[in-house]
Amino acid sequence: MSADRTETHGHTETHEHEPETAERGSRLLGAGLILVMSVCALWLAATGQLAIYVNPGNTPFIVAMSAIAVIASIAVLARPRGAHGHDGGHEHPHLEDLVHEADGTTSALTGDPRPTRRVLSGVLGAATAAFCAVFALAFLVLPPRALSASVAEIRDVNSAGLLTEPVDQTVQLAADADYSTYGLREWAALLRQSTHPEGLIATPFSGIGFVTASEESEDSFVLTRFVVSHCAIDAQPVGVTVYSPGWEDRFEVGSWVTVDGAFAIAPDASAASPVSVAPESVDSTPEPDVPYEY
């Protein structure tokens, strides 16, 4: 912000040319949004719901940064509005003030903003408070929701980029392998990478996920979950095909189910994988508190 100083009768006059209204409004808006978002992040962490948005491994970092942001934003909001500069003297009307008075931007006698500027400042402050209140209310009232099946349908299920990451190279097809701890990500990686997936035939399978339609067979659905690397933005869907004729009569797309059975030769010869899950049971189940795999 620039200022002109002139000496008049031993006093120093300071005249601000740039209005403080816009600067203060931007400061309040930015600090208010940071405060609200940080408090919401801390609330989600305290209630155990932050995992819906980010990988749990990032929770300590997010909590620490949010706490710092809360303190910093409160300090900014509590800072008093700066006064016009004084260098040991008093301000007096100046010729340049008269020019601004003529074009209606300031008052030469008071140095205060004209009524329109004061109204703008009030409106901006009210809008900032209203926006922050609505933002906070949405987080507190509306329950956090995980990514839905509609998102999975527009993303590439079992994408090559995801299932060829180093973490997926640990899956192995072996007669003595322990598959009891496998999630859908490990199963999907195993089916994709194995040159002889027929070796899985008769291997027991148990999994939980939501239902998405198979693009290869009307008699099959894909048991699907999202894998989150850092946050929900980078979530990628993975899944295993389940052969279950008439599944559409029992389950809606997006509904959560548990599947127990074993791998078998895929009845549909057009299927991309020669094996799919032949279920012994497919039962509805509530959405897990943590719906993602990591």
UniProtKB/TrEMBL annotation:
<keyword id="KW-1133">Transmembrane helix</keyword>
<protein>
    <submittedName>
        <fullName>Putative repeat protein (TIGR03943 family)</fullName>
    </submittedName>
</protein>
<feature type="transmembrane region" description="Helical">
    <location>
        <begin position="60"/>
        <end position="78"/>
    </location>
</feature>
<dbReference type="InterPro" id="IPR015402">
    <property type="entry name" value="DUF1980"/>
</dbReference>
<feature type="region of interest" description="Disordered">
    <location>
        <begin position="1"/>
        <end position="24"/>
    </location>
</feature>
<feature type="region of interest" description="Disordered">
    <location>
        <begin position="275"/>
        <end position="294"/>
    </location>
</feature>
<feature type="transmembrane region" description="Helical">
    <location>
        <begin position="119"/>
        <end position="142"/>
    </location>
</feature>
<keyword id="KW-0472">Membrane</keyword>
<feature type="domain" description="DUF1980">
    <location>
        <begin position="207"/>
        <end position="294"/>
    </location>
</feature>
<dbReference type="Pfam" id="PF21537">
    <property type="entry name" value="DUF1980_C"/>
</dbReference>
<keyword id="KW-0812">Transmembrane</keyword>
<feature type="transmembrane region" description="Helical">
    <location>
        <begin position="28"/>
        <end position="54"/>
    </location>
</feature>
<dbReference type="InterPro" id="IPR048447">
    <property type="entry name" value="DUF1980_C"/>
</dbReference>
<feature type="compositionally biased region" description="Low complexity">
    <location>
        <begin position="275"/>
        <end position="284"/>
    </location>
</feature>
